[in-house]
Write a structure and sequence with these properties.
Radius of gyration: 22 Å
Number of helices: 15
Helix content: 40-55%
Order of helices and strands: HHEHEHEEEHHEEEHEHHHHEHHEHH
CATH class of the largest domain: Alpha Beta
CATH topology of the largest domain: Rossmann fold
Number of domains: 2
Largest sheet: 5 strands, parallel
Length: 339
């Protein structure tokens, strides 16, 4: 009798890990550095959340979002937000067309009818236009008049903004900030990274990237990540971390009572655990640890903690508060890691 051929079948988590690594590797072919931002954007796309990126002009925020769309088979659109941009410019509008000699109202779709939407410099638009994104981001649909139009799946908004002290910017409303799964700080590149960027520009190099995922694969990967089990001690740690951001809580740390005006919402706890699951998969583990929650704390909480005037006067930031919270909270013992 002939030998039975053994076929190695990847479990779902290994397949998702392979997909994540392929995506991040392809993005890294075009984008120099920014490893944390690349991981964050990949997590947002797979988990079905939206990502806000903040950084000074010229550090590659737009390039990151465009490259992400290039490595997956998704429709891409870009909206440059300006003070005179109107909601209809983003959502779309009904227009009159002639069909068979009769006037008919048809929808002229706006740029939101795409899989990946880059809202460039979102904080340069008026609050009225910013709020036009709320229904699309939360409900994955757009209402125009009496009609409701579903958006394509997956639907992913990548918004970029300049630091709020730059001229001509408007703070995003708290309700809209909470709709973002994460807020990523795009750091200024190192000296070696800037040298690499300059060399590529001088030589006219535009690295090509290949497509590594289909919409169906992305949706399936996101579902697999969210189904990963989490130990109760880890879930409770994430919830305790969110509660610790509320100054009215009796056990709130002194730094929170002094500097925080309003703490994170329950949606923050959901985001913490979802992103922690992604980090566990990316690390090749089938269990979520407290360290994964700690890693997710900064991008998931920094835009959901509202500071008061004392914090502004003392130049305290949300990142310094989160760092102090992680030190003061008694994290549970990490479960045994398994590859």
């Amino acid at each position: 009798m002939g030998e039975t051929k053994q076929v190695h079948v990847l479990n779902p988590f290994e397949s998702v890990r392979s997909l994540c690594r392929d995506m991040t590797a392809e993005i890294g072919r075009r984008v120099v550095g920014q490893r944390e931002a690349i991981d964050g954007l990949t997590a947002g796309l797979l988990l079905g959340g939206h990502v806000l990126m903040e950084g000074v002009p010229g550090v590659g925020k737009t390039l990151l979002a465009r490259t992400l769309a290039d490595v997956v088979e998704l429709g891409f659109s870009r909206v440059q937000f300006t003070p005179d941009l109107m909601p209809a410019d983003v959502l779309g509008t009904h227009i009159v067309t002639v069909q068979d000699g009769r006037p008919v109202m048809t929808l002229q779709q706006g740029p939101l009818f795409a899989n990946v939407v880059l809202a460039d410099e979102i904080n340069r638009a008026s609050p009225k236009t910013q709020s036009a994104l709320l229904e699309a981001m939360q409900e994955r649909q757009i209402s125009l008049g009496t009609e409701t139009y579903p958006l394509p799946r997956p639907f992913f908004v990548v918004a970029t903004q300049n630091p709020i002290d730059n001229e001509g910017t408007y703070p995003l409303p708290e309700a809209q900030l909470d709709r973002f799964l994460m807020k990523l700080h795009i750091e200024f590149p190192s000296e070696d990274e800037v040298l690499s960027i300059v060399d590529r520009t001088a030589e006219g190099i535009d690295a090509t990237v290949k497509t590594v995922a289909t919409p169906e694969e992305l949706l399936a990967a996101g579902k697999t990540i969210r189904q990963m089990p989490v130990a109760e001690t880890v879930s409770r740690f994430a919830v305790r971390l969110v509660f610790a951001t509320h100054p009215e809580q009796p056990n709130a740390p002194a730094c929170v009572r002094r500097y925080v005006r309003a703490g994170a919402s329950p949606r923050a706890a959901q985001s913490l655990l979802a992103v922690a699951k992604f980090f566990a998969v990316l690390d090749g583990r089938m269990n979520v640890s407290a360290d994964d929650v700690k890693r997710a704390a900064f991008p998931c909480l920094r835009h959901r903690i509202l500071l008061n005037f004392d914090a502004i006067a003392d130049e305290a930031t949300t990142d310094t508060l989160i760092r102090q919270l992680l030190i003061e909270l008694d994290a549970p013992k990490n479960p045994k890691k398994s590859k």
